[in-house]
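About this split. The held-out portion is used to measure sequence recovery: a designer receives only the structure tokens and must propose an amino acid at every position. Recovery is the fraction of positions where the proposal matches the reference. Here is one held-out target exactly as it appears in the evaluation file.
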């Protein structure tokens, strides 16, 4: 992949050489062949489908979100709200609230296109988690390397994440990156993959204070804060799309290591991440129902350890 300027993830400059950085393989050409998709998902750990959604649906969701951000006063009034230019004195980040009571986002993430895709892929009826993760990532921010399993492992592990950008995301705005082949290296990060951030040791006063007392997590969830050293140790390339466009989506497995590039601009990077599984398999109770517990007090589980 040709990169014009240095790229960073969690403030670490990424090695742009072809051995270390590359492009996601598109599966747009085999959407009608579920067998091929299944094989690719197993081989690659992900499916990247550029142009999957009608861009109008994505645009409507973007408008709903940028209108809310403008009403909050975090956007630079010198630009139209749809541009999502952040005021330099404001910082944004994880913003699940932007997807709450938001029919335009629901239409994208739980609409017939995406649910139909997963039903075809899994070959049987599917369900989605009822919680929608939504991010408004501002200048200088990025997501550290992690696997989603540590946040959602109490049901089936055959769960898939869908990452969807709402708007153009060129490299410098900071899209998602996946560590190639990392889903085949679960044995190398076995201890990490056994983490459940809401589980705590009842016989460890520090844990009890942190998790029960302060409502925190027993583990931060990140695999590391250094994507460069991680890649050197685990191997593979960091993979991304050179330019995410409205309508693109990426789905990947629970054990796939991923992170994001840092946003080097003042344009907010808007994206959702949502989860899908076979309806016949158990679901992690933290994320289902009208008012999911999430990582809140109802989710905390003590054990003797
Ligand atoms: O969008 C991001 O920065 C991180 C997304 C993520 O971790 C996910 O899709 O599971
Ligand atoms: Fe994630």
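Reference sequence for scoring:
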């Amino acid at each position: 992949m040709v990169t014009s300027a240095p790229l960073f993830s969690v403030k670490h400059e990424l090695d742009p050489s072809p051995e270390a950085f590359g492009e996601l393989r598109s599966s747009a050409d085999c959407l009608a062949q579920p067998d091929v998709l299944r094989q690719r998902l197993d081989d690659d750990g992900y499916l990247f489908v550029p142009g999957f959604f009608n861009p109008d649906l994505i645009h409507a969701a973007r408008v709903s979100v940028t209108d809310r951000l403008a009403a909050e006063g975090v956007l630079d009034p010198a630009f139209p709200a749809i541009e999502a230019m952040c005021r330099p004195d404001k910082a944004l980040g994880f913003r699940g609230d932007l997807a709450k009571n938001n029919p335009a986002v629901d239409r994208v993430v739980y609409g017939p296109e995406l649910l139909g895709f997963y039903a075809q892929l899994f070959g049987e009826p599917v369900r989605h988690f009822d919680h929608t993760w939504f991010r408004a990532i501002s200048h200088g921010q990025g997501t550290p390397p992690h696997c989603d399993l540590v946040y959602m492992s109490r049901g089936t592990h055959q769960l898939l994440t869908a990452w969807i950008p709402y708007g153009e995301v060129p490299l410098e705005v900071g899209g998602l990156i996946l560590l190639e082949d990392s889903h085949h290296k679960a044995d190398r990060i076995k201890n990490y993959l056994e983490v459940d951030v809401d589980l705590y040791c009842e016989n460890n006063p520090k844990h009890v204070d942190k998790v029960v007392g302060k409502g925190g997590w027993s583990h931060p969830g990140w695999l590391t804060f250094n994507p460069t050293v991680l890649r050197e140790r685990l191997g593979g390339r960091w993979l991304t799309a050179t330019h995410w466009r409205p309508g693109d989506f990426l789905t990947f497995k629970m054990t796939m290591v991923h992170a994001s590039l840092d946003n080097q601009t003042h344009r907010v990077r808007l994206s959702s991440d949502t989860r899908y599984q076979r309806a016949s398999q158990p679901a992690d109770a933290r994320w289902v129902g009208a008012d999911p517990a999430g990582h809140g007090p109802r989710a905390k589980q003590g054990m003797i350890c």
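Annotator remark: The chain has seven helices and 16 strands.
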